[in-house]
Design brief:
The chain is mainly β and about 550 residues long. The protein contains 7 helices and 38 strands. Strand 24 and strand 25 form a beta hairpin.
């Protein structure tokens, strides 16, 4: 097989020199309150504003994440298992109100009615019903684990409606004002998929793209999904959704796990990483008394493969792009320039983190907590430059990257290295995750700035703004405060890429400190104001800003 090696012209990290980045920290503070159950606040309550909240901000920050970790005397095992608690920070005229509400999923309602865990989650296997007789409990071991509708990962928007979303085939349409659950929606009723990510991408006209697996007689397939922006009627939700392309995994019995994907103007980019799902173990989990996460594993001996799918034709490009084993949860941006596709994402050189986020690990203290953190590979932002124009005349064993400022190819295979999108000093902040950009104006386009959380703990403990031109960054960090994913809001009549503000929910395990919504000037990264909330909020996952301007 012919192989072409494609390398980076600047700041190249060659595979032979790549080293997994671990840390050596000591004395990490206990963060148990950040992963503990709280009560909901279903009616809006006022906050105490300190500093100034810009009066041009009109809308609400919607956040999602786990908020209840037990029913009765039964406890969830994994952070991802907690019941979805939705949050709304309403911002008007410089003032902020807060409310929260548990998603009334079938999982939540069944668990609440019986005051025990009835529905299995990612890391928790529901025990057989003690009210059944021995024979019925025995037979229940042979049942498949049913997918949960506990949509705790994100808020997503399709055709103007907001949905609480997870990674199964179920979403819940939610009223963005009251946070009331309105409708349970099943992806599989519209297209042949068994789930979809909670991180869709959007074209400027509102067309949504997503990815989801399907499990057929011939094994698993990865599917690219397209949802039109128009609604055909008031009851329309996912009508018109279609599968744009199906991709066969390297091993159909052990497909890759993925949390998100990349998208440029003309391509969907799927990253097939060596975090694998053993379908036999998952299907037989109940019989063996094992939860779903027991079937997910990291295989460092496999490469990472990038698949490019043309958004217009639905055809997968014949060239496959390969890199060393890496894991990724979130992409930063992807754009096309000078015959190349630039793919920027947060990567780790180890993929075992997903099974490290057990609730008991997050609640550890002392040396046990330090050891857990120090054994986890840190996520770092990287750029992969994928050449789009490859033909039979492409020269072999040469660097084809003619770009003066960037990263790497048989005529059907490209072997990629990467460029670091950071300086060495970012490692002092534990790497970076939960990336965000000025999405409305710069998604799928060349850009200069990205924002994220520094992770010098098991959860984010700083906010970071990175300048791609200089690879220098600005930081917001204060002791005992833990920021959520930063969300960029452009200012009215913005001219510069960073004209706007950053919103982040700041929580703390310290009793004499307040939880608050933080507003930073996105340009200077200085604090403009904060809105203190008189209730506890757990550490969540993702959210969106719903503008009312």
């Amino acid at each position: 097989m012919l192989k072409i090696t494609y390398t980076c012209c600047r700041n190249l990290v060659h595979p032979a020199a790549q080293k997994t980045y671990f840390t050596k920290v000591h004395g990490l503070p206990n963060i148990s309150p950040l992963v503990s159950s709280v009560e909901e606040t279903p009616e809006p309550i006022p906050t105490t504003v300190k500093g100034t909240i810009p009066t041009w901000i009109h809308g609400s920050l919607l956040r999602n994440g786990p908020g209840k970790f037990e029913f009765g005397n039964q406890h969830y095992n994994h952070w991802f298992d907690g019941m979805a608690l939705m949050h709304r920070f309403q911002i008007e005229d410089g003032q902020v109100t807060y409310r929260s509400r548990f998603l009334h999923s079938d999982s939540y309602k069944q668990n609440s009615e019986r005051n025990r865990i009835i529905v299995s989650e990612f890391g928790t296997l529901a025990l057989p019903d003690p009210c059944k007789n021995f024979f019925q409990r025995f037979l229940s071991r042979f049942e498949m684990i049913k997918p949960t509708d506990n949509a705790s990962v994100n808020f997503v928007k399709y055709k103007g409606d907001y949905y609480a979303s997870t990674e199964t085939n179920y979403m819940h349409r939610v009223d963005p004002d009251t946070l009331e659950s309105k409708q349970k929606v099943d992806w599989s009723k519209f297209i042949a998929v068994n789930g979809a990510t909670a991180h869709p991408h959007f074209d400027p006209d509102g067309t949504a793209y997503n990815m989801g697996n399907s499990y057929r007689n011939k094994g698993a397939f990865y599917n690219i999904i397209r949802v039109p922006p128009e609604r055909d009627g008031p009851e329309d939700n996912l009508e018109g959704a279609k599968i744009l392309c199906s991709i066969a995994p390297r091993d159909k019995s052990k497909p890759s796990y993925y949390h998100s994907f990349g998208m440029s103007k003309n391509y969907v980019v799927f990253i097939e990483q060596p975090i694998k799902m053993d379908l036999f173990k998952i299907v037989t989990g109940r019989l063996r008394g094992k939860s779903l996460n027991e079937g997910v594993y990291w295989d460092p001996n496999q490469e990472t493969t990038f698949h490019l799918i043309d958004k217009q034709t639905g055809k997968e490009m014949p060239v496959k792009y390969h890199a060393k084993a890496l894991s990724t949860f979130h992409q930063i941006n992807a754009f096309e320039q000078d015959g190349f596709l630039m793919l920027d994402m947060c990567c780790s050189d180890d993929g075992q983190a997903i099974n490290n986020f057990l609730v008991q690990n997050l609640r550890q203290s002392g040396e046990a907590l330090d050891e857990m953190y120090n054994t986890m590979s840190r996520p770092l932002p990287r750029r992969f430059v994928l050449p789009l124009n490859i033909s039979s005349e492409t020269p072999l064993e040469q660097n084809l990257n003619t770009r003066p400022d960037s990263t790497n190819m048989s005529l059907s295979q490209v072997f990629c290295t990467f460029e670091d999108l950071h300086g060495e000093d970012l490692k002092d902040y534990g790497g970076l995750e939960f990336p965000h950009i000025n999405y409305a104006r710069y998604n799928t386009k060349p850009y200069r700035y990205y924002y994220g959380c520094g992770f010098r703990h098991l959860v984010g403990d700083s906010l970071i703004k990175m300048d791609l031109e200089s690879k220098k960054f600005k930081v917001w960090r204060q002791p005992d405060l833990y920021p959520s994913e930063p969300v960029f809001i452009p200012s009215p009549n913005a001219e510069k890429e960073d004209d706007g503000v950053i919103l982040s929910v700041i929580i703390t395990p310290v009793k004499d400190k307040s939880t608050f919504l933080l507003v930073l000037d996105a340009k200077t990264f200085e604090e403009l104001g904060r809105a203190e909330v008189p209730v506890n909020i757990p550490y969540g996952f993702h959210g969106v800003f719903n503008s009312s301007a």
